[in-house]
Automatic annotation (TrEMBL), chains A, B:
<dbReference type="GO" id="GO:0016813">
    <property type="term" value="F:hydrolase activity, acting on carbon-nitrogen (but not peptide) bonds, in linear amidines"/>
</dbReference>
<dbReference type="GO" id="GO:0046872">
    <property type="term" value="F:metal ion binding"/>
</dbReference>
<keyword id="KW-0479">Metal-binding</keyword>
<feature type="binding site">
    <location>
        <position position="81"/>
    </location>
    <ligand>
        <name>Zn(2+) 1</name>
    </ligand>
</feature>
<dbReference type="Pfam" id="PF07687">
    <property type="entry name" value="M20_dimer"/>
</dbReference>
<feature type="binding site">
    <location>
        <position position="92"/>
    </location>
    <ligand>
        <name>Zn(2+) 1</name>
    </ligand>
</feature>
<dbReference type="InterPro" id="IPR036264">
    <property type="entry name" value="Bact_exopeptidase_dim_dom"/>
</dbReference>
<feature type="domain" description="Peptidase M20 dimerisation">
    <location>
        <begin position="206"/>
        <end position="307"/>
    </location>
</feature>
<dbReference type="InterPro" id="IPR010158">
    <property type="entry name" value="Amidase_Cbmase"/>
</dbReference>
<feature type="binding site">
    <location>
        <position position="92"/>
    </location>
    <ligand>
        <name>Zn(2+) 2</name>
    </ligand>
</feature>
<keyword id="KW-0378">Hydrolase</keyword>
<comment type="similarity">
    <text>Belongs to the peptidase M20 family.</text>
</comment>
<protein>
    <submittedName>
        <fullName>Allantoate amidohydrolase</fullName>
    </submittedName>
</protein>
<feature type="binding site">
    <location>
        <position position="379"/>
    </location>
    <ligand>
        <name>Zn(2+) 2</name>
    </ligand>
</feature>
<dbReference type="InterPro" id="IPR002933">
    <property type="entry name" value="Peptidase_M20"/>
</dbReference>
<keyword id="KW-0862">Zinc</keyword>
<feature type="binding site">
    <location>
        <position position="187"/>
    </location>
    <ligand>
        <name>Zn(2+) 1</name>
    </ligand>
</feature>
C-alpha cells in the first residue's frame, strides 16, 4: 500500500496543537520555554510515542523522535519548531513539525519500511521572541552556537535564563550530537509570492543573506521660515535621500534583491523646524552574497556623499551581516521534481526569512518546501494556509522522504 | 543738535528688561500675561513715563506711549513685543520696543520737535507660546482678530483665560482704536542671511506666505525578507518620495521659496517590517502668493500620483494657509536709503517668520528693519546680536522716524 497523507489527520493535529497556548481572539502564544511551550512539547512527545518513535531530548531542549529504518544509518530528518511569537498563527513552524508527524503516521498506516530511519524534530526557540538569538536550538544542535553560552542567555524581558527555564519545564536533556543524512523542512512561505503567482509549492534554494545597517545623520536645526534652502544642514532630507536610494537600488538590481527602510525618526520633529537629526535603518537581502555586499558597499559610500554634500555628518552602524545560505541543489531538484510529478505548480525560490534549515545546510544536504501564505501574512493571528495547499506540501514532503530513505524501493 | 542713538543707553535697557524673567543658565522666560510679563510691562510703562510720554493700555492689554508732535495727526508708531517663548533670548521682540524707547530718548535729549507724534508700542502675546493664536494683541488692535473671542481664549496649558489674566495683572484697559500714519518695527532677523552675506540691515519687504500640509500615507505592513519589491505597498517610501519632492521643488523654484519637512513618522517602525503608515508635514513659504499656491497645488497632486503608483492611500490635511503680506514699497525704500546713507550694507529681503508688523500692513504704510542674528539663532537662550549691529539698526529706525515725522525739517 502506498503511503498517503491524510489531510484530515494532519488538520486535526494542527488544531490540537493550535489549541495549546491559544489566544483570546485568535492565534497562538507559545513563547519559547513558557508553560504553553511546555504543554506543546508534552503534546509532541506524546504524539511521537503514539507513533512508536524513540524520543530524544538534547541539552538545549530540542526534541526529536526516530522511526527506525532497515539500517542504522543516519536518519533523514524532518524539522521545524513549535514555539511562536506573542501573536503567532497556527502554521509558522508548527506545520513543519506536524507534517513530519503525519509523514510518520502515513508510513505507519501503510506499513512502509524505509532503508534509512526517519527523524522528526522540534527545535528550541526558533523565533527568538523571548530569548535572542533566534534559531537557538538548531544552531546549538549543528554546532553554530555555543551550548553553555545559550544556556546562560537571559530573556529579553530579563525574567529568566534559558538553562533555568529548560530545567523548570523539564526539557533539559543531554548532549546528543546527530548529523542526519539529509534535512527537510516544510514551512509556510510567510510572503506573497506563491499566492500571487498561483503556485502551490516553493522549492527553496536557500536563505537570503541579510545586511542591516543603521544610519544616523546629524545636521543643524533651523527656522523653517528664516533659513534659505542654501544655508540649511537638513539631517531629515539626507535621511530621506538615503531611504530613497536604498529603494531605488533594490528596484534597479531586480529580484531577489530587496531593501527596506523600516525605522525612520527625525528630531526635533516639529512642523517649522529643520531637523538636526535623522535615524533610519536599511534592511537589504539577496541570495547572492557578492551582489549583496557590493550593494551595501555602494549604499554606504553614496550615503556618505549625500551627507557630505549637505554638510551633515553620518554615523553608519552595521547591525547585522549574514551571508546567504545555499541549499543542496540536488535535493532542491528532488523537491521540484516531486511537485511536478504531482502536477503541482512549483518554482525554485529563496527564503526571505531565516529557518532552522539554514543551520543544517553546511553539514548535510538540506532543502525546504514552501506552501502559500494567504496574503503573505505571518507572525499574525490571521496567518492562514488552505488545507488543500497543506495537503500538497505534506505529500511532496512524504514523496521526497520516500525518495531519500529508500522507502518503496 | 541732531538726535543720536546712544548705544550705551540702549544696551542698558536691553539688560534691564532682560533681567526681568531671566532664566537660571541664561535667556529669558516672560510668557504672555504671567507675573514676569507683568513685571516687564511695569518696567516699560515706567520707562515711557520717564520719557514724558502719555501712556495708553487697550482692551487686549497692548501698551503704547505717545510723544507729542507739533500736530495732533496720527502718530508714526514703532512697535514690537516684550513677551517671550519659554526659553527666549534677550532680543526677539524686546529689541524693537527698546529701540522705540531709545528713539524717543534721543529725540528728548536733542530736544527735537517732530510734526507727527511718535508712538512706541508693546503688543500682547506676540509669541503665541502660552495662548494661541500668536500676534494676538496687534491682531486685535488692527481688527484682524475679535476682541471678545481673544479675551476668552484659554491658555494651551488650560490654566487661565486671556481676559482673566489681563485683569489679574492689571493690564485690562479699554477699547482704544488707533491707526498710525505709519508703522515701523526693528527686529532681529532670526535667520542666517544677513550674517552669511556680511550685511548689517535688512529692509524687509513683507512676510512670506505660509502653507502647512500634513500627509498621511497608508499602505500595508510586510515582511522585509519575504516580500519582493514589486508586491509591496510601502507607505514609508511614499512618504520619503513626497519629502524629497518638496525639497527638490523649493530648490528648483529658487529663493525665496523654502520647503521644510519637519515631522516624519513611520509605523510600526521596526527594522524588518515594511511600514504601513507614514505621516509627514511640509512647511512651504514664499513671498509670492501665486507661486506659493501653485507650488502647493503641484506638491499635492504629485504626492497623490506617487501614492497611487505605490498602491497606497493618501490623506492630505491643510494645517495652515496664510497669504503673503507685502509691506509698503515706498517705506521699504526709505529704510533701504537710510541704511545706504549711513554706508550700512543693506538688502531688501522678506521675513520668514511672522511679526506684529503684518497686522498693520493692510491699514497703514508699514515696514520692518532687520539686524543680523548670530548664527541665525532665535527662540534660544543663545540668541545674540552684536551691539554695533543694534546701534546701526536703531540709528536707521531713528532716521526713518525723523524722515516720516518731519523732525529736523
Amino acid at each position: 500500500m502506498t503511503p498517503q497523507i491524510s489531510i484530515e489527520r494532519l488538520m486535526a493535529s494542527v488544531h490540537e496543537l493550535g489549541a495549546i497556548g491559544a489566544r483570546d481572539g485568535g492565534g497562538v502564544c507559545r513563547l519559547a520555554l513558557t508553560d504553553a511551550d511546555k504543554a506543546g512539547r508534552d503534546w509532541f512527545v506524546k504524539s511521537l510515542h503514539a507513533l512508536n518513535c524513540e524520543v530524544f531530548i538534547d541539552a538545549i531542549g530540542n526534541i526529536w523522535g526516530i522511526r527506525a529504518g532497515r539500517t542504522e544509518d543516519a536518519p533523514v530528518m524532518i524539522g521545524s519548531h513549535i514555539d511562536t511569537v506573542a501573536t503567532g498563527g497556527l502554521y509558522d513552524g508548527a506545520l513543519g513539525v506536524l507534517a513530519g508527524l503525519e509523514v510518520i503516521a502515513a508510513l505507519n498506516a501503510s506499513e512502509t519500511e524505509t532503508d534509512l530511519p526517519v527523524a522528526v524534530a522540534a527545535f528550541t526557540n526558533e523565533e527568538g521572541a523571548r530569548f535572542a538569538p533566534d534559531m537557538m536550538g538548531s544552531g546549538v544542535h549543528q554546532g553554530a552556537l555555543d551550548l553553555d553560552e545559550m544556556l546562560s542567555t537571559r530573556a529579553t524581558s530579563g525574567d529568566a535564563l534559558v538553562g533555568e527555564e529548560l530545567r523548570r519545564i523539564d526539557y533539559a536533556g543531554q548532549d546528543l550530537p546527530i548529523t542526519p543524512s539529509a534535512y527537510l523542512e516544510l514551512h509556510i512561505e510567510q510572503g506573497p509570492v506563491l499566492e500571487t503567482e498561483g503556485l502551490k509549492i516553493g522549492a527553496v534554494t536557500g536563505v537570503q543573506g541579510i545586511h542591516w545597517t543603521e544610519f544616523t545623520v546629524r545636521g543643524q536645526t533651523n527656522h523653517a521660515g528664516t533659513t534659505p534652502m542654501s544655508l540649511r544642514r537638513d539631517a531629515g532630507q539626507v535621511g530621506f535621500a538615503i531611504a530613497r536610494l536604498a529603494d531605488e537600488m533594490a528596484q534597479e538590481l531586480g529580484e531577489p534583491q530587496v531593501a527596506t527602510v523600516g525605522v525612520f525618526e527625525v528630531s526635533p520633529c516639529l512642523v517649522n523646524v529643520v531637523p538636526d537629526r535623522a535615524r533610519l535603518t536599511v534592511d537589504m537581502r539577496n541570495t547572492d552574497g557578492d551582489i549583496l555586499t557590493s550593494a551595501t558597499d555602494r549604499l554606504l559610500s553614496q550615503a556618505q556623499q549625500i551627507a557630505e554634500a549637505a554638510e551633515c555628518t553620518l554615523d553608519i552602524r552595521p547591525l547585522a551581516r549574514f551571508a546567504p545560505v545555499v541549499f543542496d541543489d540536488a535535493l532542491v531538484t528532488r523537491v521540484e521534481t516531486a511537485a511536478q510529478n504531482r502536477q503541482l505548480p512549483v518554482k525554485r525560490m529563496p527564503s526571505g526569512a531565516g529557518h532552522d534549515a539554514q543551520m543544517f545546510a553546511p553539514n548535510c544536504p538540506t532543502a525546504m518546501i514552501f506552501v502559500p501564505s494567504n496574503k503573505g501574512l505571518s507572525h499574525n493571528i490571521n496567518e492562514h494556509t488552505d488545507a488543500t495547499d497543506i495537503e500538497a506540501g505534506a505529500q511532496v514532503l512524504l514523496d521526497v522522504v520516500l525518495d531519500l530513505t529508500g522507502g518503496l524501493k
